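FAQ
Q: What does a multi-component entry look like?
A: The components come first, one per line:
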Amino acid sequence: MSGRTLAGTAVKAGLLGGLAVVYVAAVGMIGSFVALNLIGEQVTMSRVLMALPAFLAGYLVARPRVQGGVVQRAATGVAVLAGTGAGVLTGAVTAAGLALAKVPSPDTVRGIFERVTPALFHTISFGQSVPTAALLLMLAGGALGGVGALLQMLPETYRRPINVALMCTLLMALLQRLIPTILIQLALKFGSASPREWSNWLYSSRFSGLTVIGSVVVFAASVAVALLWANQGPKLRARAGSLAGNRRPFVTGGAAVAILALLFVLPILSGSVVSLVLGTVGIFLLMGLGLNIVVGYAGLLDLGYVAFFAVGAYMMGVLTATGDSGSSLHPQLPFLVAIPLVMLAAAFTGVLIGAPVLRLRGDYLAIVTLGFGEIARVLAVSDLLKKYLGGPLGLYHIPQHFLGVGFNDPEKFFYLVTAFVLLALYVSWRLARSRIGRAWTAMREDEQVAEAMGISTVKYKLLAFSMGAAIGCLSGALFAVQIGSLEPLGFNIIVSITALAVIILGGMGSIPGVIVGALVLIGIPNLLDEFQAYRLLIYGGVLVGIMILRPQGLVPNTRRARELLEEEIEQDQWGKGTGGPSIDATVAVGGAGE
Amino acid sequence: MILFVVIVVGVTYGTWKTLTLPEGSPRHLSGPAWRDLVVFGVAQGSVYGLIALGYTMVYGVLRMINFAHGEVFMCGAFASFFVAGTLDSSGFLNRNPVGSIVILILVGMLVSAGVAVLVERVAYRPLRNAPRLVPLITAIGASLFLQNSVRGFFGVQTQGYPDIDVLDGRWTILGIPILKAQVLMIAAAVVGMVGLTLFVARTRTGKSMRAVAEDKEIASLMGIDVDKVIVKTFAIGGMLAGVAGVLYALVFSVVHPLMGFVPGIKAFTAAVLGGIGSITGAALGGLILGILESVGPSLFLNGSHVPSPNQLRDVVAFTILVLVLIFRPGGILGAGGPEKV
Amino acid sequence: MSLLEVRGLSKRFGGLYALRELDLDVDEGEIVSVIGPNGAGKTTFFNVITGIYAPDGGRSTFDGHNLVGLKPNKITKLRMARTFQTVHLFPNMTVLENAMVGQHCRTRSGLLGAILQLPSTRAEEQRVREKARDALSFFGSRLVGYRFDQPASALSYANRRRLEIARALATEPKLLLLDEPTAGMNPRETEEMTHLIGRLRQERGLTVVVIEHDMRVVKGVSDRVIALDYGRKIAEGSYDDVAHDEQVIEAYLGRKAVTR
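Then the predicted structure of the entire assembly, as tokens:
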């Protein structure tokens, strides 16, 4: 938000903030989230959505600006004033929207903007008349804006932990369906007589959000941890980096065991509803890992990833389905026999899709793969292949029991998915560090020179597609097992875009990033039903926002971050050999994201 | 290569089988039936052509595929839908059809242009100098965002567009009966095409656009305000898409939030088919795609007794897309090969 | 038989002949310089023999193998490596990684090896690292130690040129094509490069073909000089012969300069 003057910036911010509130209201989010309590009974998601634009407006207005090549920071008082002003303007615009919407008859407005219901009016105007509401909105907006600006003006050492704490509190509040269950289960395991006590202090059982005390505790704890990390973090990292070679495997081994134990225990603690969600997260995580190889490592933007997913799912379905499945083919193979066949089909599909697109450049490659994805969808629904694929009704009776285990139980399924996810994680990690990974990186940076270095771009592009296909098909096959039946309309471009959003949010080419992306983009909407309806809207916003604000993603892969930002990396960072990471260290321990 | 041969052989075989079907058989299509298909294809192609113009212009100046253009089309249709509803309930719609149609088209143009410019300002401009992958992903995000915003605002259902009585029925032109609405579509496309070509060739803005398309940096050194030119490009492309949207809604009588996605991709196919960056190419591509898509499934597949070939209409379009991009990315009117990066 | 043999090589761009019936030999162990005014076809010559362009006529053989029709990666495998006129490093890969990419054509481990971490794969990776370090060490202390982990984009211009040569070295070539290696360097760096090219032959046994504009380098380095103009060879011989050749002077300085 670069204005020429502070006042100009404040006006801009205020207007945008107000429009944001109006938008969010019109799109229906404020209405839908009224019942979603975050903290106590007063801080609902919809109130937060109303408050956030004003707060952010103030926060961003007070940011230091570059003017004439010099970074300038306004005096605190002035900045807070500007922030308050922006907040007031936000409130004013919201009020204006409110007033405008009342001009035509409610039915006319509702006829057009579905979500603008009387209930919505009530929420936004706090149940007051328009003039009173306007006043309230402007006051509240001003206050929020001022606080936001104040926060921005705090020195970095205080501001950072507060930001982190705010986000942690929000996250904890959003996880209100997950954590209480875990705590209660833990309590039961520990033989507590009143298990609810374990979670009631943190999350209220009455209104399912954080209690006030709970939120304060979370906030304080986050601030403490953030401060601690800022102080001790670099030291700890240095210690970890300079660990003698023979000690290192123990540390990594220990970490690995801890994570495995956690994964084992998780579904038991979280109950079947959450396990179901985790299972879906797992499937998309798998897809993300596969797409990560194609997009993140080899740099090929594949928008038709759903094709692999569909092939895997249908292969599994056709090969294993029993009874009247909708397909005329009934080999009824067991799961373990079907999997290798699915992989074979995967490799074949990978080459089939990869071969024609070898010579294509970025944009065109994307569109062609998109075309393939759509062709896959149309074929799955078509009457042409109805005999084998079941047409619009899809396939049924896909067995979910094998090896003596019923995988329709979400907890068991979670283990199945996790096993494959771990496998895929391992393979991705190994590939990134290998000669193949190097070849992909070189190809991504400069195709012509890579070719001159002896790297056959044809071979490595096909390899990337095949690996991506293998993992994609695998995730499709698991999906078939999870649901037990297939509906062709679900195999559409949205699946491809979701997978893409997952890796973009987390960071292209970064394995921890894919995990974070899946958890955030799949986990949260599935845990909170209110978000489901806005899932795609959020994905779209995330894609645009990330590309503009932080193209390297949340947990970036260092190399990719450089590529996308083309920033100068300080020579200091790369160290005098001791503190900084080195190639050997990265190989042994597994440095951040590489 | 093998793929190409397979497809050519398959298509020829299929066509031959269809054309040699005996008269009495249920799959046989009579002359008039073919003619209707062709007419439909031409009308459809006009819509694709109008939308394709937007793609081709933006690609020309920014070298990027404006993925969100299909949504621009959709927004124009939606805007006109609401206006049409109001006009209809007051009776104005049918009392003054010509005036109404003009108003609807103007509304559609305005809204579409507005959306296009907004997307450019918010999503594309900050990324002007980013590596190619980035604006493409942003465009996809913008497209998704627009689709779902409209869904959120107005609901997910398909909404029926009011009927304009005067547009019912056919006119017979050169002995061919054509739906009146279709005539309107084709006329609009022709006007749009010709208008744009003249605009780009004769006006100052048009010349600036061509300059920016050739070389952005040098154009700015010549005193051309590149940002303004780009905004105008998006606006004009948007306007044309808006017109297409209104007419599409009039012909098919429905609007829904996802209506822009498939026509968007097909219009892009048309642009590439004709040669991306070329205005005549977009027109030509639209026409060819429209006809092929309409006639194709029946022509290629009827004889081979493929069930419900019209389901596969989209496959025809996508296959053309894939084939063109692989074998002749420069399109029919363009250079033969891909640009060297 | 010469290591590199070129007969009647031609390359056209539209109506323009970039190379016209070029005949050329390079024997093993030689250092040959290719000179000529801008547009003479020197870089095009490199591009054609390394497979980036297909020639419109003529033959070229390297070490007995026919080069025409081969893709660049195959030609590198045959042990002919090159650098580029404008430095084409992998900017976001580290110095060591850039050099390691050079080893790609000498290694074989594939998918299975990478995933299963077979002993052969691990040994190969070790070797690759060693060879890369070795190639980098050719430049003394400039590209070693803490430099290994710096991104290539962080290097100074001269170091980038050296890295490019190191990367080419890592492909274990027999013949090295250097395209204007001293472009943009100051006199001290240029002198260092001159010595370096000599060392490439002495220490590594390479045959080198150098495109150069700086005559001090050409004089200090070459066994033989070949002059091109408008895609044709106009002179060949020792530095002194070529430097005083009338046609060469005319090509660089114009007809009047010849009458001196």
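Q: Is there any commentary attached?
A: Sometimes. For this entry: Chain C has eleven helices and ten strands.
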